[in-house]
Design a protein that fits this description.
Blueprint lengths: L6 H16 L7 H10 L4 H8 L4 H13 L14 H16 L7 H9 L5 H8 L4 H13 L2 H4 L10
Helix pairs in contact: 1-2, 2-4, 2-6, 2-7, 3-6, 3-8, 5-6, 6-8
């Protein structure tokens, strides 16, 4: 499923899992995925967030504080993804298709998180006054301006 994901998008998903493990959380939630996006400063999503005046360091600190309060488990070897994370990833794929992109990048993950207002990450992003449609338009502008290439959000071809 992840063959069309860019290196940066894959890294975000990996960071989310590691962060859930680090905190001993019982699952990987959208809050972990948002933490990963805030940590991956070289992706298109970081550029888009900065254009909306979202400072990534305070966002990561906010997410750290939130993750500390989540229930802890002893066995954190392989954590399941929450339903909301699975939905966000599927929404990311849909956003990429709708934009006619042959890859799924960090920008699509950001849009995927915003599509479900019930998810924790979407609520946090709403606190930063981020709404899906304006963010989607900014993603289009950033990608059209070539920032995706400049930010090294390399497109991964599909495996044949």
């Amino acid at each position: 499923m992840f063959e069309r994901f860019t290196e940066h998008a894959r890294h975000v998903i990996e960071l989310a899992g590691r962060e859930a493990q680090r905190f001993g959380n019982e699952y990987v939630g959208t809050e972990h995925l948002l933490w990963g996006l805030a940590k991956e400063v070289h992706g298109v999503a970081a550029t888009v967030l900065e254009r909306f005046h979202v400072d990534l360091k305070p966002l990561r600190r906010e997410m750290d504080e939130m993750l500390k309060t989540r229930p802890h488990v002893d066995d954190v070897e392989k954590l399941p993804q929450s339903v909301h994370v699975k939905e966000a990833i599927q929404y990311a794929v849909e956003e990429a298709r709708a934009m006619r992109h042959n890859y799924v990048g960090t920008e699509h993950l950001l849009l995927g998180l915003l599509r479900n207002p019930q998810a924790v990450a979407a609520q946090v992003l709403a606190d930063y006054n981020l709404d899906l449609d304006p963010v989607r338009e900014e993603v289009r502008r950033v990608v059209a301006a070539g920032a995706g290439q400049a930010m090294c959000d390399v497109r991964i071809p599909a495996e044949e």
